[in-house]
Design brief:
The structure is a single chain. The chain is α+β, with helices and mostly antiparallel strands. The protein has one domain: Cytochrome p450 (Orthogonal Bundle), CATH 1.10.630.10. The chain contains 16 helices and 10 strands. Strand 1 and strand 2 form a beta hairpin.
Length: about 425
């Protein structure tokens, strides 16, 4: 098996899609927590301590290539031991330049501050009240027949409507948003002829829609969240461009919906595959938040975070040249046995439940992580409350001991393509 992994190209080899975790173990055991892979020259990080060092040092590791990694390649040839001037000169030529995910401080800090008002305690409380109602509405659509395809019938519509409520999307447009997701392909699709990730900017639908919302609210303010977004200002009182606000609202909507929907599906997969775990959570709902954190740790919906070395440096004893793409493999980092005891198992008594990096760290820590936690907790509690038992559909996924699941063929996201469930109701 080690001979096979020695020749794996992470970005194009479909054999590591279904179960990448043996590959992560191989990297840690045979290559160490940091390794320069030979195919693309990417610095691969699977160590928890080393990952934190990258996340927390934006002066050494830039986010300019965060959504694209080594593709389609840099618009410049790195020269010398310091690439800062080249990054600054060519940043606008890199994929998704107009999004905060690719920015570094101080620009990133200035714009991130504009969005914090969406996550105030008052707004989050109102949004949670909406989640409880919405969870029941979604469950009502299929509980009566005793089966469902969970991702399409619950996880995706639930998470889409939650983020729509948070951002204040008008009711009339919410179904249109939901339909958009069903037409999209996942970025980072594996293809043996791939030279760049698909759909590096697939958010034009959201951008144009949110631009219209913000322009309308600036002309005609209302008592809603979109008006708050339209009226935010920098500390000096200046007004941010509509296009930037629309980009960030679109990114927040799409990223928040897709990642949490994937996590919900993995949570249900764990519950149906582990009957004792399901029984434990039914008996003790107070363990649900810990279970949620373990799902984020064990099956983070984003496989890889990318950074670019601004200057030549050393990480985990490995020299990384200026201009090198650094890939943080979240699934490997979150199962680093140096940080997590019995790292491959769900442990409802784990003390270090918040040490995972599913939401990144440093200046780019996920702005919506508390929203994701609330969505997961509320959805799982209502599902457990309203079902007496949840089982996998053997007709769709095979019998006990011979389960089969399809996973998205992408190097960027980790997700099930379907999850067919059967259940009894209370």
């Amino acid at each position: 098996m080690s001979d096979h992994y020695a020749s794996v190209d992470w970005f194009t080899d479909g054999t590591v899609v279904e179960d990448p975790y043996p590959y992560y173990r191989y990297l840690r055991d045979e290559r160490g927590p940091v390794w320069i892979e030979p195919v693309h020259g990417v610095a691969v990080v699977t160590g928890h301590e080393e990952a934190l060092a990258v996340y927390r040092d934006h002066e050494t590791f830039s986010s300019c290539n965060a959504p694209s990694g080594p593709f389609p390649g840099l618009p410049f040839v790195p020269e010398g031991d310091d690439a800062n001037a080249q990054i600054d000169e060519h940043r606008a030529q890199m994929p998704m330049y107009g999004y905060m995910a690719t920015w570094d401080p101080p620009q990133h800090s200035d714009y991130r501050s504009l969005l914090t008002g969406l996550f105030t305690p008052k707004r989050m409380k109102e949004n949670e009240a909406f989640m409880w109602r919405l969870a029941d509405q979604q469950l009502d659509e299929f509980l009566g027949r005793g089966s469902c395809e969970f991702i399409r019938e619950f996880a995706e519509p639930f998470t889409a409507l939650v983020i729509a409520d948070l951002l204040g999307v008008p009711d009339d447009d919410r179904e249109r948003f939901r339909a958009w997701f069903q037409r999209q392909k996942s970025p980072g699709r594996i293809d043996e002829n791939m030279t760049s990730p698909e759909d590096t900017n697939s958010l034009s639908f959201f951008e144009s829609t949110f631009s219209g919302y913000i322009e309308d609210r600036r002309l005609t303010p209302r008592a809603d969240v979109l008006t708050h977004l339209a009226q935010v200002t920098f500390p000096d009182g200046s007004t941010p461009p509509v296009a930037v606000l629309a980009n960030e609202a679109a990114f927040l909507f799409a990223a928040g919906q897709e990642t949490t929907a994937r996590s919900l599906a993995f949570a249900l997969q764990f519950l149906v595959d582990d009957r004792a775990l399901q029984a434990s959570l039914r008996a003790d709902r107070s363990a649900v938040p810990t279970f949620v954190e373990e799902i984020f740790r064990l099956e983070a919906p984003v496989k890889s975070h990318f950074r670019l070395a601004r200057r030549t440096t050393t990480l985990g004893g490995v020299e990384i040249a200026a201009g090198t793409t650094v890939m943080l493999l979240i699934g490997g980092i979150n199962r680093d046995p140096r940080r997590f005891h019995d790292a491959d198992a769900v442990d409802l008594d784990r003390a270090s439940i918040y040490e995972h990096v599913a939401f990144a760290r440093g200046v780019h820590t996920c702005l919506g992580q508390q929203l994701a936690r609330a969505e997961m907790r509320i959805a799982l509690e209502r599902i457990l409350d309203r079902t007496g038992d949840i089982r996998i559909s053997p007709a769709d996924h095979g019998p006990d001991g011979a389960r089969g699941y399809d996973y998205d063929p992408t190097f960027f996201f980790r997700g099930l393509r379907s999850l067919h469930l059967e259940f009894t109701t209370t």
